[in-house]
Design goal:
single chain, Rossmann fold, 6-stranded parallel beta sheet, 13 helices
């Protein structure tokens, strides 16, 4: 019996460290059937290039700065390679493929709320978004946003949540003298460090012993280092950079914090919940689909240092609540957010669209 194989090209702008790049790699790595062939193409090289080369059937980097040269390269590439589906992630890659001759099904993967203030981009989206055969997003909130902002009616929108491993060994660190917090996020403005760091300072001033582990890299590193030094927080905030195994650090934490100003559906929140941690997170994007008040964590307003402080104090004063919320969160991940679910949903949609 011949197995019909689906050949897919995953297209990213740059294979750097980020939620989208990790989510795509997770699917490609976990998809082990003989029914799907996963190629990947990136407009630019990045931190994850070697891993993409190792995990995909074929990985290509354009590295052309000029848009016209990119267009010529892509046109030739698609002529030489026959794909059933081209799956683009992000606005820039999707617009490029909307303008190319099309013999394949085109999917637009939107991993977050792409709040563009560029009038030309917004108008281009309104005019051409329906040239996609399917839009896939990772949260119901993002789906609603797209439908409302761009009045999408002729293109189907599917929601596929991010997935994660379900570690067998949970966070077993006992809460004694110091409350261990962790944030897994790039060191960028959008991750809300301007509001999180002052919260740690205020907790220290209130004689609450906390340590915040920061896993991530980015342009805000110098600002964060300066804040730590200027406010004598070297014992309270630790920078670990980009790490390979986040679970190693989650295992030694009590609470995962997400102070983002904008999100799709946070990989780090899912990873924290899988480890059995309670979550303190800003109510942005699809976060409320994971962080359920009085059940799995505490939702707070974005850009609100005082609410971060209050939420941390809530758990500090009630360690048993941390355990209850953590256990509840793990059960939600076990049910709906595993890698097995991620692969199953993607493959079912791929078969349906071609």
């Amino acid at each position: 019996m011949n197995i019909v194989k689906i050949k897919i090209l995953h297209v990213l702008y740059k294979v750097d460290i980020g939620g989208t790049e990790r989510a795509v790699l997770n699917y490609i790595r976990e998809e082990k059937s003989s029914e799907v062939i996963n190629d990947a193409l990136s407009f630019y090289d990045g931190y994850l290039s070697d891993e993409y080369k190792f995990k995909t059937n074929q990985f290509t980097v354009i590295n052309e700065k000029n848009f016209i040269n990119k267009y010529i390269f892509l046109k030739k590439y698609l002529k030489e390679n026959d794909y059933d589906i081209v799956y683009t992630y992000g606005l820039r890659t999707n617009i490029a493929f909307r303008l190319l001759p099309k013999k394949y099904k085109l999917i637009y993967g939107i991993r977050g709320l792409e709040n563009s203030t560029n009038k030309l981009i917004n108008q281009l989206n309104k005019l051409t978004l329906n040239k996609n055969d399917l839009i896939i997003t990772n949260s119901n909130q993002t789906k609603k946003y797209i439908q409302n902002k761009y009045n999408v009616k002729n293109t189907a929108i599917e929601v596929i949540h991010n997935g994660t491993y379900l570690p067998e060994e949970l966070s077993a660190i006992d809460y004694k003298d110091q409350l261990q917090l962790i944030i897994i996020a790039n060191l960028n403005k959008v991750k809300g460090y301007d509001y999180l760091l002052p919260a740690i300072k205020q907790l220290k001033d209130d004689n609450i012993n906390v340590e915040l582990k920061i896993l991530g890299e980015g342009l805000e590193r110098k600002m964060i280092e300066a804040y730590i030094n200027n406010h004598n927080l070297t014992e309270n905030i630790k920078l670990y950079g980009q790490v390979e195994d986040v679970y190693k650090y989650l295992k030694h934490s009590h609470i995962l914090v997400s102070s983002s100003l904008s999100e799709g559906l946070s990989n780090s929140i899912i990873e924290g919940m899988a480890m059995g941690l309670p979550i303190i997170a800003t109510n942005v994007g699809g976060t409320s689909e994971l962080v359920i008040p009085d059940e799995t964590g505490i939702l707070i307003e974005s850009k609100n240092t005082q609410q971060i402080v209050t939420a941390i104090k809530t758990y500090y004063q009630n360690p048993k609540l941390m355990k209850v919320h953590g256990n509840n969160g793990r059960e939600i991940i076990k049910k709906d957010f595993t890698f097995e679910k991620l692969v199953e949903k993607n493959n079912r949609i791929f078969k349906k669209i071609i």
